[in-house]
Design a protein that fits this description.
One of its GO terms (molecular function) is metal ion binding. Belongs to the phosphohexose mutase family. It holds the Pfam family PGM_PMM_I. Keywords: Isomerase, Magnesium, Metal-binding, Phosphoprotein. The longest helix has 16 residues. Helices cover 37% and strands 22% of the residues. It has four domains: 154 residues, Alpha-D-Glucose-1,6-Bisphosphate, subunit A, domain 3 (Alpha-D-Glucose-1,6-Bisphosphate, Chain A, domain 3, 3-Layer(aba) Sandwich), CATH 3.40.120.10; 84 residues, Alpha-D-Glucose-1,6-Bisphosphate, subunit A, domain 3 (Alpha-D-Glucose-1,6-Bisphosphate, Chain A, domain 3, 3-Layer(aba) Sandwich), CATH 3.40.120.10; 107 residues, Alpha-D-Glucose-1,6-Bisphosphate, Chain A, domain 3; 79 residues, Alpha-D-phosphohexomutase, C-terminal domain (TATA-Binding Protein). The strands form four sheets. Strands 1, 2, 3, 4, 5, 6 and 7 form a seven-stranded mixed β-sheet that branches. The protein starts with a helix and ends with a helix. It contains 15 helices and 22 strands.
């Protein structure tokens, strides 16, 4: 693989500093390789492309489009889009898709998320490595073919909004006060269309599309970025706050008190709702969701299936098991009736619909789904991750262990998972206990091993 591609081709997508690492030359080659991989070359098909609001996105869209068209493929551009809007277009049009975005990464970055027709994911082991190898061959040429495929622009946003309301109707009658923080990302483009027909009083925050992220990073997994939203919820007396990441495929929920609702609790709530409409269904959850999630799935007659972390893995497992829903503790939520793709907007609509069906608050609604105390994800820079995992395996040898994704150790009143980052020399720790003291004790003990304290 060309070393330039080696810098930017990751486990699930293409990502790097742009234009320093991900430039139009590499992007065009990736567009050509994608056309070949998905069989649209030689005039045999079409690719749908969307992009976020980053300064480099239009340039990369042009380069990727030129690459597809240079191989004889056609291009439909849906213009500015959230990642789930691109997935919708891929599913609705039944075309391979490319989304130019670096998601929640800072302004200096950009990237490409790829999928086959029907929003089927492409990761390193399901086509991305082949695309990178083909792009390496193409980069070695001395002459570039001229684009011959067609190019057209098409709206997908209005149909997307209509479709979401079909699959998650939010009942009228209770007018919700909603504060939504787009973080200057793509939710500023999609929320107005989706919310236009809802019975809500919307207070928008940072809806101006700005790839420099002038107010805060669009990464709600970092709770420091939620401070403004939390304050606004309290100030306005809102029923609920919603925080979207840069490409708006993730959504975090703030309750009426300004507290963050655990994504595991959101997973449990949506699972409960899914099991009402589809009794006995299979629901997926990853290894770091709260143990309340499989408990609640089982209690409501469903089948809980545990998976590794990662969207391409979950989507493949959903297809294999016929699951109707899957949730990750990182705020990604996947829906069978949304082409098995993830959508923060659909998750937000589920919570709003559940709230609108009651006279209570978000905190009261979520109380049944939040049973335990979690540490949140704690990252540690390490020099020898495998050696540390081996040491933890030995230290907790008398307890239940599994290695589905890193190491999970389970006791009666707590569990922890330690797994390695795909891209950095980090170990990621998640701990959950029956109470705060138990969680804190286990957290500190495990961190002492990881950090050599």
């Amino acid at each position: 693989m060309d070393p330039r591609l080696g810098q930017v081709v990751k486990a699930y997508d293409v990502r790097g500093r742009s234009p320093e690492e991900l430039d139009p030359v590499l992007t065009r080659a990736l567009g050509e390789a994608f056309a070949i991989e998905t069989g649209v070359d030689g005039g045999r098909g079409t690719v749908v492309i969307g992009h976020d609001m980053r300064d480099t996105s239009p340039l990369l869209v042009e380069a990727f489009s030129d690459g597809v068209r240079a191989q004889g493929g056609n291009v439909i551009s849906i213009g500015l889009a959230s990642t789930d809007l691109l997935y919708f277009a891929s599913g609705d049009f039944d075309l391979p898709g490319a989304m130019i975005t670096a998601s929640h990464n800072p302004a200096a970055y950009n990237g490409i998320k790829l999928c086959r027709a029907g929003a089927k994911p492409i990761g390193y082991d399901t086509g991305l490595s082949t695309i990178a190898e083909k792009a390496t061959e193409l980069l070695a040429r001395t002459e570039l073919p001229e684009p011959t495929g067609t190019y057209e622009e098409r709206d997908a946003l209005s149909r997307y909004a209509e479709y979401l309301h079909q699959i998650v109707p939010v009942p009228a009658g209770r007018r919700l006060k909603v504060v939504a923080d787009a973080g200057n990302g793509m939710a500023g483009h999609t929320v107005p269309s989706v919310f236009a027909s809802l019975d809500v009083e919307l207070t928008p925050m940072y809806f101006e599309l700005d790839g420099t992220f002038p107010n805060h990073d669009a990464n709600p997994l970092d709770h420091s970025t939620l401070v403004d939203l939390q304050a606004k919820v309290r100030e306005t007396g809102a029923d609920i706050g919603l925080a979207f990441d840069g490409d708006a495929d993730r959504c975090f929920v703030i309750d009426e008190r300004g507290d963050v609702v655990s994504p595991s609790a959101i997973t449990a709530l949506i699972a409960h709702r899914a099991l009402i409409t589809t009794p006995g269904a299979t629901i997926l959850h990853n290894v770091i969701t709260s143990k309340a999630v499989p408990e609640i799935i089982t209690e409501n007659g469903g089948t809980a299936v545990r998976t590794p972390v990662g969207h391409s893995l979950i989507k493949a497992e959903m297809a294999r098991t016929g699951a109707v829903f899957g949730g990750e503790h990182s705020g990604h939520f996947y829906f069978k009736d949304f082409f098995l793709a993830d959508s923060g907007m659909i998750a937000a609509l589920h919570v709003m619909a559940a709230l609108a069906e009651t006279d209570g608050t978000v905190s009261e609604l979520m109380e049944q789904y939040e049973r335990y105390v979690a540490s949140g994800e704690i990252n540690s820079t390490v020099s020898d991750g495998p050696a540390i995992l081996a040491e933890l395996t030995k230290t907790y040898a008398d307890l239940d262990q599994d290695t589905m994704d890193g190491l999970t150790v389970t006791a009666d009143t707590w569990w922890f998972n330690v797994r390695a980052s795909n891209t950095e020399p980090l170990l990621r720790l998640n701990v959950e206990g029956d109470d705060e003291a138990t969680m804190a004790r286990v957290r500190d003990d495990v961190l002492a091993v990881i950090r050599g304290d």
